[in-house]
Design brief:
heterodimer, A: alpha+beta, five-stranded antiparallel sheet, B: mainly beta, Porin, 2 helices
Chain lengths: 185, 313
């Protein structure tokens, strides 16, 4: 295939080099407001809190989680404070993981005591997605907090996705404990 | 009109107690190699940096929550030889579940475009032949109530940032969102006057359109379809598009498209391809596309390497 000029090669090399300075994945959270209303039906508004992680916070999150964060997770994290009449009702957090058939977008609502109010799967394309989205499975997370035992009964035939959802929720609770907990007092 | 809208929004922002703000930057690169220039739609023969973009999103919150959103995206296309504003708008965000007001240049909420932007994909929705416009400068009210989505837009009909005449283009869409599907009914009415080279339909014509769009998640398939009917300067036009994706695993999916458009000219397109998610936010895509315009047909082989990222400032 004939190429017109060296500029194209330069642009492609730049493109490859730039990939190494990518700071965070583009995380698409579809319909965030609908999800917030699902988790907090009485909520009237929300405020985005963007946290830029420092080395100590990364260390603390990894320590709570018992595993290292991915490189793309070490830069920033968004927490959405939902309120009614200016009173904070709780927080909504979202995180994407990988299932067998694509991204699993997991969202949790957190009460002001930092326990889980409810979990919701914004996007899941697994074979057993109905079972994964069911109250029977997601209800197991309700009431848990960062110190809780995370022995979750996985959905039969979707053990990998179940474990990934559980891991994502634990990770969000670790983010909450390190980044957000101090703000509630 | 554009200047006036920003003055109004600037006035509103000035009279609000600003408590917090946040800025997000995202950017992307879209490299493509095509075996031939398409009969319609974007793309050049040979290897090209088809597009590069930088998007800034700034949110200003008041005491209750996020209230003003400003978005500005610049695109550099065709080996950085063409620079243009993509979406550039200010948005007054209502309370949760309330109406939003958007002013500036935005993607028109017509048919699949309301929820799907295929600008950086090899297989695209068919506004380049069916509408002759995708982005326009105007004012839009949109939101949701329960499962219902709504959007109403009044814009210039020129596709440009500046006000060229007093012409108005009306677009309205009402949709229903369910767990595994969404459906919409759209209406467009007004004069469209564009000279964008990406659009097969250029020039000035009075258009009316009615469209039904749907997105259905039927694991492992995702189906997106749109049916259009209407008039161009009184002449009946109609068309249909089906985009079908099949997920093989978390990284690999097969993609297909079939569409036709019947107006003063007849268009048909069939495309098959795949999309593979690479490490470091890269996506590799390839497609074989067959296009027919009246009696002329062409087969195009396309490769794409796409990359994007986002970061808080």
């Amino acid at each position: 295939m004939p190429y017109k000029s060296a500029r194209k090669y330069i642009l492609f090399i730049v493109m490859l080099l730039l990939s190494n300075v990518a700071l965070a994945d583009v995380c698409v959270w579809r319909d965030p407001e609908r999800t917030m209303i699902k988790l907090f039906p009485q909520a009237e508004d929300y405020k985005t809190q963007i946290y830029k992680l420092n080395p100590q916070q990364i260390k603390d999150i990894e320590s709570l989680l018992g595993e290292p964060l991915d490189e793309s997770e070490k830069h920033e994290y968004n927490i959405y404070a939902v309120n009614k009449n200016g009173q904070t009702l709780g927080w909504v957090m979202a995180l994407a993981g990988v299932g067998e058939y694509g991204v699993i977008e997991t969202v949790i609502g957190i009460n002001t005591d930092h326990s889980i109010r409810a979990a919701y799967l914004q996007r899941v394309r697994e074979r057993k997605r109905k079972a994964l989205k069911s109250d029977h499975f997601l209800g197991q997370f309700t009431g848990k907090n960062q110190q809780s035992d995370f022995q979750i009964k996985p959905v039969e035939g979707a053990e990998k996705a179940s474990n990934e959802i559980s891991r994502l929720i634990k990770k969000m609770l670790a983010y909450d404990a390190v980044l957000n907990n101090h703000q509630s007092h | 009109m554009f200047r006036l809208m920003f003055i109004i929004l600037f006035f509103l922002v000035q009279h609000t107690e600003v408590l917090a703000d946040a800025t997000q930057i995202s950017a992307g690169l879209d490299g493509r190699a095509l075996s031939a220039k398409p009969l319609w739609g974007a793309g050049e023969e040979d290897l090209n940096l088809h597009g590069a973009f930088v998007n800034l999103r700034h949110v200003i919150s008041d005491a209750k929550g996020d209230r003003y959103i400003f978005v500005a995206q610049m695109d550099a296309d065709d080996n950085m030889s063409e620079f243009e504003a993509y979406q550039v708008y200010a948005q007054l965000k209502g309370s949760l579940g309330g109406a939003n007001l958007r002013a500036g240049r935005y993607i028109l909420p017509f048919g699949l475009l309301a929820n799907l932007d295929t600008e950086r994909q090899l297989m695209q929705t068919q506004e380049s032949i069916a509408l002759g416009i995708k982005l326009d400068t105007g004012v839009q009210v949109f939101g949701f109530a329960g499962a219902l989505d709504y959007a109403l837009s009044v814009s210039q009909g020129t596709g440009t940032l500046d006000d060229q005449d007093s012409n108005k283009l009306l677009v309205a869409r009402i949709g229903i969102q369910q767990e595994e599907s969404r459906w919409g009914l759209s209406y467009l009415d007004g004069r469209i006057n564009t000279d964008d080279s990406d659009f097969f339909q250029q020039g000035n014509s009075e258009k009316q359109r009615l469209a039904i769009d749907a997105e259905v998640d039927l694991f492992p398939w995702v189906l997106r379809m749109q049916l259009d009917a209407g008039k161009d300067d009184g002449r009946s036009v109609s068309g249909a598009t089906l985009l079908a994706d099949y997920d093989v695993n978390a990284r690999l999916s097969f993609n297909s498209k079939i569409s036709y458009w019947d107006s003063a000219d007849e268009f048909e397109e069939i495309a098959l391809g795949l999309s593979y998610q690479l490490p470091n936010n890269f996506v590799f895509r390839l497609a074989q596309t067959w296009q027919q315009l009246n009696d002329v047909d062409e087969t195009i082989f396309s490769l794409q390497l796409y990359w994007d990222f986002s970061h808080a400032l």
